[in-house]
What does this fold into?
Amino acid sequence: MIQIAGWVHSVTVITPERTVVGKAGSTVVLPCQYSTTVGSQFVVEWKFLPGNTQTAKWQQIYYYSDGTTYKPGSQADRLTAVHHTPTSGAASIQLTDISSLDNGTYVCEVNNPPDFSGSGSGIIQLSVLVPPTSPSCHANGNAITGHDITLSCSSTGNPTPVYGWTMVGTKTALLPGILENEVTGSLLLTNLSAPMSGTYLCTASNEMGKATCEVTISVSGASEAGVVAGAVIGVLLALILIAAILLYLFCYRNRRKETAKSDHPGNEIREDAVSPMMGDEQRRSRDSHHSQGSRDRSENRARVV
It folds into this structure.
């Protein structure tokens, strides 16, 4: 702060609108006005804090100093200064083709050393209106007579969508035993019965539009559910039995092969084996020789006795 002849020089920043609302795809102006005597060290800076991230950090998106402009942020292609040279008391910026990614907090800062007194910054909240996205529908639980089941529906948008459920093909209200939650998008069907079978339509809506999704359920009796479960178990047991039989046959075949090999270790050579190359005369002489030898052995045994 400098005091000259009773005057105090200071910087005062004013943001006429604390909240700016715009539709997705439109153009918005973030207003920023200031009062100071622009000097050689005059600086204008805009920062952005995203509102859709949990670990958001301030991002510098606009910087003006000594006649030069910098736009280091991801919005650079869509961001312009309303006044090409922001030295006449206005430092407003403009964003085109806005989307949900532009939701968040914006800060306009004006620095003009040595003017340090006063309020040198102003805050603006930008809210981008977005229609609901296509919702996702799911059924949680088993649709069995007498049981409960919950249908869920979820979507995103700005403002946050509200939900409504209807049963396709009917013009009347939902049946008794059905509890609807417009905030969470859930639909609780209690004590299920056959008339509750059908297709349910969820509508997510906000001031920007609406979107829908469907989920179909078929309520079955407890006995039918048991039959289905029994059939599934029966098929599984049959598959296990077939696998066991195939494994047994495979092992049995391998054992047969090993047994056959052990019963025939090789060919034995007999003493009286006849060579295939031996002639007829040689074979007759050999047979006569063996016969005479057998008679001699018999006589010798007789003498001994």
Remarks:
- DSSP finds two helices and 20 strands in the chain.
- The helical segments are 222-263, 280-304.
